[in-house]
Amino acid sequence: MVDVPEISFTSRVATMASMASIAMSYQPGLLPRSTGDQAILTGLTSAVNYGLVAVTGSAVEGAATAVVGSERMQRPGVAAATHGIANAGLVAGSVALRRVLPPREGEPLRRATLRRAGWVGALTGITGMVASGILGAGEILEARTGRSYRRFVGPGTLVAAMVAATVLTARNRRDAKRDLLPPPVDPLPLSDQAAAYEERQIAKYERVPPLTRSLVFGAGVSAGLQGAAFVESMASEGIAHLIRRVAPSMSPFANWLGHSVTLGAVGVAAVAGLEYVNRQADAGGAAVEAAYNKQPTMLTVSGGPGSQIPFDTLSREGRRIVNMALTADQITEVTGRPAMDPIRAFAGIASAELVDERVDILMRELEDMGAFEREVLCFCSPTGTGYLNYVMMETLEYLTGGNCATFALQYSLRPSFISLDRVAMGREQNRAMLHALTWRLRAIPEDRRPRFVVFGESLGAHTMQDAFLHEGMNGFARAGVQRALFIGTPAASGWAKRWRANKDKIDPDGRVVEVASYEEYVALPEDRRSTAEVFLVSHHEDPIVKFEPELAVRVPAWLRPPREEGVPRGLRWRPVGTFLNVGVDLKNSTDVVPGVFVARGHDYRADLARFTALAYDLPTDEQTMVRVERALRERELEWATDRVQAEQLQRASEALQRQLSQWGITDLSGSLTAPTS
Known about the structure:
Elements: H1 9-20, H2 35-68, H3 78-100, H4 109-145, H5 153-178, H6 191-205, H7 211-246, H8 254-286, H9 315-323, H10 328-335, E1 343-347, H11 355-369, E2 376-381, H12 390-399, E3 404-409, H13 423-442, E4 451-457, H14 459-465, H15 474-479, E5 483-487, H16 494-501, H17 503-506, E6 512-515, H18 518-522, H19 526-530, E7 534-537, H20 543-546, H21 577-585, H22 605-615, H23 622-662
Parallel strand pairs: 1-3, 2-3, 2-4, 4-5, 5-7, 6-7
């Protein structure tokens, strides 16, 4: 019979805590989750709790061993008693720490982090006491009967953890059913397509995994954790054994060092994986799409004839922006009014190496195109990939009759959630562009000066807002910005954080307004609406608006009563757990179907046309707005269809080329003839 090494006491405690934490992952989220998303959340929650408890528990075990002595710990009953007393002390100290550091409004992050360390300590201590009790019971039975019960210690801890997980999972599943959101609906649907979308959404928003499936799934994750815990325990024990041989004086803390090194290696591997994802995302952001691989022919877009900016430097999103530009005829067809070709200028990451050079080339582009002679200048900050919301751009172009210029500087090629390291560059780049624009606009006589507005979505809202960081509303006035529209502002935006925390001081005139929908804005008092110049549109259930690192250690305002509509009542704050819960929701924040505009999560298209007209004070009427909104949906569906067709044709062409190459045909010109009968 082969002896299977037994996992260490600390690894057993960490496994118990991580298994019990499985239930935490079944709390309702801001948005519905698929089975795959639930798997990710459950795995992450369990893994993080395992790591925290393993490191904390090994430190406690090391301290206890140092006090009692390694030899005495081998005596019957001593280990269980020592572990029990040490973990009871940890619980008492953790509770005392939380009492000494109660939550305070506006407290430093380090204070909140220290208090939440007490929570981790309490979790470790309570779990350690339960594990010590099970271990002690086994040793008592062994002493009385002369038979070893150690083999039942592992299953005993497993059963204890599973009982706790089952009870908590059942409660969280009940809360998830109670907090189901109604499915999103397009207020101006395009016939059968929208109907099919709504049917799919109804099924999605009514789906709550059955309790049995949830428990089976949790059991599967638990089994995986047992295996992972065994591997981690063996690795950390190997490192601890080496430390005891090389540095005997460090023996009491060898286990703690072993767990720290092992889990640290996992962290390094995760960072390396993220770097690989970043490189792949950069390559995707620079890729040339089949639908937009040709230089535009319009004279009023970047990359076109006579443009200062080469077409091949615009990135994937930049090429979309300039190729999808409206023409004067298309604008007139919808509005019934005379129009001109609008200006769209875009400087990609590859358009110039340095920030100052990109600002300079974009300013020259605007000058050459006559942008400063247009009625409206709209400076946009794109999302991480370089994406600019075409609903906003096209609404602006329709309602100004093309008498506008929309322009942007790219600062990243990756999706926003992995472009956080580019926020500083985006902010400084926008600030440099604002300085250049301010001086140029001041040189124009006031009666001929264009109206200057700004726009930002998602990370673009963050990087544009933080260009005015520490200036409050004065920054907008200094730069000559007359109106601003921000949608889906990330929780990490420093400017928005300061405004929300001290509105009366930063904005005494009430020029900033934040709402979740157009209807919510219309319901505001008239005096509040009349002063609004800076508009923040933020859905209550948008995880990007809620997600920030502080969620791991501090209860956010949006989880305190009274809760906003769309925030589940059953979502309870837990250290690290809530951070992971909302983090997984980021994946589902935008469920976009071309041509179907809804207002849910991080999708703001349903209200965006009306907010564009409102925020930029663009004159229109209801009939025109309805025609514009329908045209926006039709154009989005048309462009998406063109993209799919072009991609499929390109793949078919590449497959044909590969097959012909295998047949030895390299020159297709005249080599293929139609078959004759």
